[in-house]
Every structure is written in C-alpha cells, then in structure tokens.
Amino acid sequence: YILDFEQVNKASLPAVGGKNASLGELITAGIRVPPGFAITTDSYLSFLTQAGIKDKVFKLLSDVNPDDVASLDGASAEIQKLFSEALMLGDIEEAIREGYRCLCDKCGVKGIPVAVRSSATAEDLPTASFAGQQDTYLWIEGFDQVIRNVQKCWASLFTSRAISYRIKNNFPHEKVLISVGVQKMVNSRTAGVMFTLDPVNGDPSKIVIEGNWGLGETVVAGKVNPDKFVVDKIIFEISEKTVSHKHVECIFDPQKGEVVEAEV
C-alpha cells in the first residue's frame, strides 16, 4: 500500500503517479529531496471498494451533464461527501501509520509536519494536461490529520473542474487513478518552480526559475508575480532576470496552526 520515495522511479508511474515517480527519479540522480513515501493507487482502489463507495461514485459520474454547471457541482459535492464520511479500514490505515511513523523516526521529530500531495497517473500526457487539478495540503501534523488529508486528496480527483475536463477530453474516469505523496515539509525562506526548458516557447537550451518569499504555493497558484531568472544551459549564464514586487507570501502560522497568506 505504500512505497518509500527511494523505491520508486518513472517505471512506477502506474502505482505512484507522475509527481511521486519524478521525486524517485530525482533521488536516483543524487538530487537532495525531502524524505517521504507514496501511498499507492492500490490503496486508493482498495479504499473505494472497502468503504463501499465505488459504485455510488461512478453512478453519480454517469449521470453528469458536463455542460451544466449545477450538474457538475452537485455530483462533485456528493462525491466529496462520500469520501469525507467513509472510514479508512485496517490494512490501508495501518500501512500509512507505519509509513508516517518511519518518516518521523528518520527525521528524528515526533509528529513531523508533512505535505500531503496528490499524484495522479494522468498528470503529464502528450494529449492532455491534468497537472494541477488535484489538491495538495501543507504543514500537516500528526497521523490523524495525515489520514484526513489523504482522503481529501483522493476526493480531489472528483472536483467539478476535473470531472468536466475528463469528460470533454473523452478520458474515462476509471482510467485516472491517484496516489498520494507524504513528504517532510521544508520551512522555506524562499521557494518556487524550475522549468528545465522554456515553458513559453519550448526552448530546450534554457532553464526558467520563478520564485517568491515563503512556501512555493503562491507561485504555483499564480497568486503573485514572482521573480524570474532565465539561465542559458549552453554558456551557463543568466540571460534574463526580473525582480518583481512580491506583495504576499505563504507561511506557517504557529498560533493558528496552519499555513496562511501574509503580506510581505
């Protein structure tokens, strides 16, 4: 039901999804990656069956009209409710508990804060882009909260947007599976995204880096105009630099016990 990031690679994509498989590849390449583990697609499928919600979910999906917002929102809300009220049973829960306990031991921190990250099997396909449609939850502490947010990640496979996109791209709902990554949080001063080619024009000779203060959520969600650096791979020089006014950052608030957006 779970696999350590060190055990996965791109061949593991059907079991752990694109995001987790890529983390495994980075570790294999010798790049420093915060430790964690993947909750496999088998766990998701077993949960659907053991909780008795599989038939109900796909019945709701079969009745959806993708051109009717109310129909999409209604089906999505019903499915979210099914996931939130379902109980995770013994063997799956125990595997995740053991994975989280081992991660706490590895890091030497009891109840270590983690990111609970969706990793769908159809995130990066040549014909369609599903990336970013599922949810991620930051700074989750304690086993019970990990379990609750794992179920929320599974449920995010059925947001109105995700349901509509799959229908309009003729992609069967049952063909998209979801894994979840549980990964040690980094209390970052700055964070962002690096593209190993130019995402605008596809130029493979460029690396594009975008960043902001705090956690990377503001950059990923497009909530801030980030600093931007374009690096030329050929001559190993920065060919473009843009420093923006960054008005907001995403940080952990110890008093509230959650991640918040704060003015810089």
Automatic annotation (TrEMBL):
GO terms for biological process: gluconeogenesis. Its EC number is 2.7.9.2. GO terms for molecular function: ATP binding; metal ion binding; pyruvate, water dikinase activity. Residues 14-263 form the Pyruvate phosphate dikinase AMP/ATP-binding domain. Pathway: Carbohydrate biosynthesis; gluconeogenesis. Keywords: ATP-binding, Kinase, Magnesium, Metal-binding, Nucleotide-binding, Transferase. It catalyses: pyruvate + ATP + H2O = phosphoenolpyruvate + AMP + phosphate + 2 H(+). Its cofactor is Mg(2+). Catalyzes the phosphorylation of pyruvate to phosphoenolpyruvate. Belongs to the PEP-utilizing enzyme family. PANTHER family: PHOSPHOENOLPYRUVATE SYNTHASE. This is pyruvate, water dikinase.
